[in-house]
Structure formats: structure tokens, C-alpha cells
Amino acid sequence: MNIFRFAGDMTHLISILVLLLKIYATKSCAGISLKTQELYALVFVTRYLDLFTDFISVYNSVMKVVFILTSSAIVWCMRRHRIVKRSYDQALDTFRHLFLVLGCLVLALIVHDKFTFQEVFWAFSIYLEAVAILPQLVLLQRSGNVDNLTGQYVFFLGAYRAFYILNWIYRYLTEQHFRLWISCISGLVQTALYADFFYYYYISWKNNSKLQLPS
Amino acid sequence: TGDACTHDEL
Predict the structure, then answer these.
(1) ipTM of the complex, rounded to two decimals
(2) How many domains is chain A partitioned into structurally?
């Protein structure tokens, strides 16, 4: 464990909590893609299949449970909460994310560390996390609504990406057997897609602030 | 070795 990875885990968790609290506080999920949140929940469930078989540390196990619970809570809120679900942009959130799931599954069956059930699903979750933001990117381009995608959420999501890239650089420089290629390359793709999301977020945020009536 | 397949990153 290094400080970059710990900071990355913390900012990742904070970004999820910020989004969950925003949805719960405003009882609204307008502008948020349920499909992206479903993909994130699927990422954690398929990545942490080893929760009950491999014990690495208390921190590792506790964080796995927390990530699964918080990402599932967001999906539950958007699908089941009687007030929140009314504000879901169902007509705009139409990205066919099933193709992302199938594509990542095929890729994981081809490129993985070891051909075991757990390893294939681990690689699947790594690839899926990289592309999971696409439905949210498309919804943002269509709706331009950033009310619930607070600046803090976008900031912590970006910080998570930045810290993890620093973590991989640190591990590459300090460890003999660097074998995080799947995580590293997929993480770079994820960061590039995040940068694209950030660009559209900034454009939408600027347009919205221009639209504000002069107080 | 064993650690090759345990993923210690979240």
C-alpha cells in the first residue's frame, strides 16, 4: 500500500458518497445516468468475488464491502425510491450499456492474467470500469443538466484517477515484478474518457452559469 | 507464486 493508492481509494469513496448524499438530500437524480451507476455497481460485484476467499487486509475487505454497498445504494435509490425515481431522465438515458457489458466480457475472455472464473471476471470488471462513464457522458451531452453532478463529485472522481496513475508510476518504479498492465492500460483509457466527460461537464457548467438570470 | 494472482488493489 502506498499513499497514492490510499488517497485514490479515499477520493473514489468520497466521490460515491458525495453523489449518494446529493441524490438523497435533494431527492432528485435528474441528469444522472442510472446505466452508468448500474455499471459501477456491476464492476464492484464482479471485481470483489474474492471477498470471501482471499483475505488481504481488514482495510481491503472493509473497503470492498463499502464500495459494493454504496454503489448499490445509488442504484437502489434511482430505481426504487418513490420520489427520486420520478426525476430519472429515462427518455435521455438510452445508451445500450448491454453492449459495453458484452464487449468487456469478450475482451476479458481473451485478455486476462489467468483463465479462471475469478480472474476472467476481475479483468471484466477492470475493462468495464474504464467504459462505465460512457452512458453518463452521452446523457450529459443530451441533457446538459449538471444540477446533481456537483463539482465535488467531478473533482473527487478526477482525483481518484490522478492518484491511481501516480500509484502505478510509483509501483512501476519501486517493484521488481510490475504486472499491473491490465489495470494500468485500462486505467489510462478510463482517465481519457473521464477527461472527455470533464470537458462536457465544464461546457455544461459554463452554459448553465451563463443562463442564470443576473441576480 | 501465490501473490501473482491475488489483486491487492481495490
Answers:
(1) 0.83
(2) 1
